[in-house]
Design a protein that fits this description.
The chain is an alpha+beta fold. The chain is built from 8 helices and 17 strands.
């Protein structure tokens, strides 16, 4: 059995994550498995804690928190070049867990970790930024910015819904030039989503055909659309049926994507936002990441 380190973000999920510690302790003692629990105390600390754990002989590093915590721990494993990532989802989004078929029920998710089944998943790159799930440009990047502001006052998934409604009325489409495996496209777009995973925004199924193991990105582009039509389109994005709205939505499968933006715009990389400086190049990282997951 693996030697397990649990890295807990005590403020994830509005502070509810720390309530999972007794469950972890009782389960591990019952299984008689060697383990330790450490807590993050500041942003980005999960990466360093993962590296330290691997250097101390832990082989399975479990992120206990939301997607931000998962990414921090994953980066530590990737940078070290060894180790397995486990996910005990307890944030507001938990989108990578969804794409991996991991239950959002803590007891079931813990069982998945301890069963030891793993997948080698793709690692995407957006310029110099690594991502495991989805990176995007346009409308949804703006939603993340607004959500982060709202979450300082409303620490629940409803913050995303409020941010969505605000952004609908504020956002202006952007002109882009895209190269998708050699195919050149110029258009006014609402959003571009490039991903390994299926979900973002707390369960929105933006890329329903994505496969985290196949070595390809799936790409969804939504063309410029009126605000009224967008209100009708958004519910279909939640369940993934937007891919049938071919007048406005295009889906591609590719290994290399380049996007040039003509207006000020932002890049969303697994929930982290940065301003785009000219262009974004999406490509697959040379290595993969081993993760505990359901079949």
């Amino acid at each position: 059995m693996e030697k397990i380190l649990y890295i807990v973000n005590p403020v994830a999920g509005g502070g509810k994550t720390k309530e999972l510690v007794p469950l972890i302790e009782s389960t591990m003692k019952h299984r008689n498995i060697e383990y330790s629990i450490v807590f993050t105390t500041k942003p980005k600390e999960g990466t360093d804690l993962a590296k330290e754990g691997l250097n101390e002989g832990y082989t399975l590093i479990v992120a206990v928190g939301g997607d931000g915590t998962v990414n921090e721990v994953a980066y530590g494993i990737i940078e070290t070049g060894r180790g397995i990532l486990g996910i005990l989802p307890s944030g507001t989004g938990n989108d990578l867990a969804r794409s991996l078929g991991i239950s959002l029920n803590p007891k079931e998710a813990l069982e998945t970790i301890l069963e030891g089944k793993t997948k080698n998943i793709d690692i995407g790159k957006a310029n110099d930024n690594l991502f495991l799930n989805i990176s995007s440009i346009g409308f949804d990047a703006e939603v993340v910015i607004v959500t982060d502001r709202i979450k300082t006052k409303i620490k629940s998934s409803i913050s995303y819904v409020i941010a969505l409604l605000i952004t609908i009325f504020r956002f202006k489409c952007i002109r882009v030039e895209m190269e998708i495996d050699g195919l050149t496209i110029k258009d006014n777009i609402l959003l571009i989503a490039v991903g390994n995973g299926k979900y973002y925004g707390g369960g929105i199924k933006i890329l329903p055909m994505s496969n985290v193991e196949d070595g390809y990105f799936h790409v969804c582009t939504v063309k410029k659309i009126s605000k009224l039509k967008l209100l009708f389109l958004l519910p279909t994005i939640v369940n993934g049926s937007h891919i049938n709205q071919r007048k406005y939505v295009n889906i591609y499968k590719a290994r290399n994507i380049k996007v040039r933006t003509m207006e000020k715009s932002y890049l969303n990389v697994d929930g982290e936002i940065e301003e785009i400086n000219g262009e974004v190049i999406f490509e697959m990282n040379s290595s993969k990441l081993r993760v505990t997951a359901n079949d």
